[in-house]
Amino acid sequence: MGGGRRLALSFAVRSLRRRSALNILPSSSYAAIHLMDSNLCCRQSANCDVAPDQQIGLKERSRTTWAFTSVMSFSEAAMTKSLPPNAVLEEGPTTTTRAATPLTVSNNNPRVIFVLGGPGSGKGTQCARIVRDYGFEHLSAGDLLRAEINSGSGNGTMIQKMIEDGNIVPSEVTVRLLQKAMEKSKSDKFLIDGFPRSDENRAVFERVTGIVPEFILFFDVPMDEMERRILGRNQGRVDDNIETLKKRLKVFVESSLPVVKYYDAMGKVHKVNATTSVDDVFETIRPLFKQYEQKDSTVELVQGVTHKSDGPATLH
Ligand SMILES: Nc1ncnc2c1ncn2[C@@H]1O[C@H](COP(=O)(O)OP(=O)(O)OP(=O)(O)O)[C@@H](O)[C@H]1O
Ligand SMILES: Nc1ccn([C@H]2C[C@H](O)[C@@H](COP(=O)(O)O)O2)c(=O)n1
Predict the structure, then answer these.
(1) Which CDD domains does the UniProt entry name for this protein (predicted)?
(2) Domain range spanning residue 23?
């Protein structure tokens, strides 16, 4: 990129940042800032006159100057490189007409459990069982993004491209979808599946919603088994092919595992060996939810609010 164009892009980013600080931008603009940052960052690296240690310096600088867009790792920035520059500025019907509103989740103290694991580790399969037996609302970040593509949203093309390339969609887009789904729901307890997939996902979710997860369920499955499951899934997903899978596994190791480590250091991770049968994995996690349900009923009784029966809390 020529110096003039880079300067113009930097100026545009700075201008959007100023407006974003005032919370007066439509949601797609936040995605635009993120991607313009990415473009700047990776184009600077592509010039090859920036030494690797200086590239890390770039990352650190952007972290300190503006945490929201730039917490992403340098490798994540490189992954957005193939995105056509004009795609990032696309404004869709859902974003241009809506006034910018502060992002808050309106449900009363929603309780959140994050369900993490690599592609094909069985997150969706187990979430369906947890919902069946323990009445959580299941929000799959991947499903919400696919629904956004199918809705004809202005962000659809960009999301589709990111998913086809095995990349992580800008956090502001995913967090807004999660937030909307939580607001729409009557539930106050959510299983959020496939999120946060990066440190940036986590930071934006925390900043925007103020929600701290109760715990994290992490399904541990070796790479070769995940590959076998994904390639045998047969649901017609555009990202269930060997090329995209390689990228998804790389992103999982480089961007998602650090999030698991982050929560592990806080003592919040329940790591589950998910290589056994679907039934066996569910029996392994069941006690966690029984315990959770018990805690739930105790809190309700103590608060003198409703409780589900006159007797003790139902145990499954
Ligand atoms: N314990 C298991 N043993 C064998 N196969 C399983 C097991 N759990 C799930 N599967 C199968 O593996 C495939 C992937 O499972 P699932 O869709 O639940 O994974 P996921 O973690 O949600 O994947 P993704 O992140 O790609 O959406 C499905 O075909 C599912 O039937
Ligand atoms: N937090 C997330 C969750 C998902 N995506 C994108 C990228 C994934 O490869 C794709 C499919 O998700 P899955 O159904 O496998 O959970 O959706 C993302 O960008 N950010």
Answers:
(1) ADK
(2) 3-71
